[in-house]
Specification:
- It is a single chain.
- The chain is built from 15 helices and no strands.
- It is flat and about 65 Å long.
């Protein structure tokens, strides 16, 4: 008798399994999304909606072309909820990476890492789409029934921008989920990178006199979650956002393929790639402390640029060391006696980061004033 072999599970099977795994979570967030927008509109009621969106000649509020006095707060809450949804979904789909007793079993299953990654990632994207689509459909039905379909049509481009930004945040988060050793570190590092990047770039653009009323797209590169709210004021390129979704998702796939199983349950500070990320935190700490000391101690603060002040550089170098030390402590990196001998060279990369970003800003961004 000939021996028959069962075919290996394919992408569709992994996709269905991932969907089934998060069915309850998706239902919960679908309810929360509906609570924030369509149910909230029903609670507000047609008359109150009309009263709060009618033109008021005595009000100076400007909600832009997409929002009004009712949709603005609902959209802001929806943005926060979208970020939480991304982290919960990603943590659920990729939680097995951080559990040693589970990852060995998952790695022994009869399908490739590519199938694992793309099945879970496509399920993640699909679950985002389902929630956003149902929420938009019911919101549109309610506003159209009330006779405010034009308000929904005006809001729809901003809503689609929020959805695309959510996909971008998903791709960015998948990179860190694939690299990190614990789920806590993955989410903490995600938030830390975005916060330190956007504040650091804003400070550098201000120092180099390149901070315009419409900020450079450089600000959003490592801070995709900021697009949730910045798009209210400054429109973003759809093509650029789609390109970033592809870039981050493919990067996450490459990181996932090369991820050693031994990373499970290991703090990020003990992983080989983490020291190359620390200069970002050192730069942030150096810039923040440098500007603080400059404002505090330099008598020429009213008319002198911080870049021409010794006080700024003293604070910057102290901040570099503090940032390196704090980023090591928070991420569980061992602090040994040879800290200064081994960490200072990496700490000085914070200066290189600053020079490179400032140089790019001077080359490619026109002076603001």
């Amino acid at each position: 008798m000939e021996k028959t072999t069962r075919p290996l599970p394919k992408l569709g099977w992994a996709y269905k399994q991932a969907l089934a795994r998060t069915r309850s979570l998706v239902s919960l967030f679908l309810f929360l999304f509906l609570l924030v927008m369509p149910i909230a509109l029903l609670i507000i009621g047609k008359d109150n909606y009309l009263a709060n969106t009618a033109p008021n000649p005595f009000s100076s509020a400007d909600y832009g072309p997409h929002l009004n006095g009712v949709l603005l707060p609902l959209h802001a809450i929806l943005g926060l909820l979208s970020a939480v949804y991304v982290y919960f979904l990603g943590g659920t789909h990729f939680n097995y990476l951080y559990r040693r007793n589970v990852i060995d079993r998952e790695e022994s299953l009869p399908f490739s890492r590519d199938t694992q990654f793309w099945g879970r990632t496509l399920a993640h994207f699909s679950e985002l789409f389902i929630v956003f689509f149902v929420n938009a459909l019911l919101t549109g039905v309610i506003l159209s029934y009330w006779g405010f379909g034009h308000d929904f049509a005006a809001y729809l481009p901003l809503y689609l921008s929020l959805f695309l930004s959510t996909l971008e945040l998903t791709g960015f988060s998948l990179v860190l989920f694939s690299l990190s050793g614990t789920l806590f570190d993955a989410i903490l590092l995600n938030l830390a990178i975005q916060g330190t990047w956007i504040v650091s770039v804003l400070q550098i653009l201000n120092l180099t006199e390149r901070l315009h009323d419409t900020p450079s797209d450089l600000i959003w590169f490592l801070a995709p979650a900021s697009r949730f709210f910045s798009a209210i004021v400054w429109p973003h390129s759809v093509l650029q956002t789609v390109a970033m979704i592809i870039f981050w998702t493919v990067s996450a796939w490459l990181c996932f393929r090369k991820r050693p199983a031994e990373y499970a349950a290991v703090r990020n500070g003990q992983l080989s790639w983490y020291p190359w990320l620390q200069p970002l935190f050192s730069m942030f700490s150096g810039l923040s402390l440098g500007q603080f000391i400059f404002l505090l101690f330099d008598p020429n603060v009213a008319y002198l640029s911080p870049l021409r002040s010794p006080a700024f550089y003293i604070g910057y170098f102290i901040g570099l060391v503090l940032g390196q030390w704090l980023s090591s402590v928070v991420m569980g990196k061992p602090i040994r006696k040879e800290f200064f001998r081994k960490e200072l060279p990496l700490c000085l990369l914070g200066i290189v980061f600053f020079i490179v970003i400032a140089g790019l800003a001077r080359l490619f961004i026109p002076r603001a004033y």
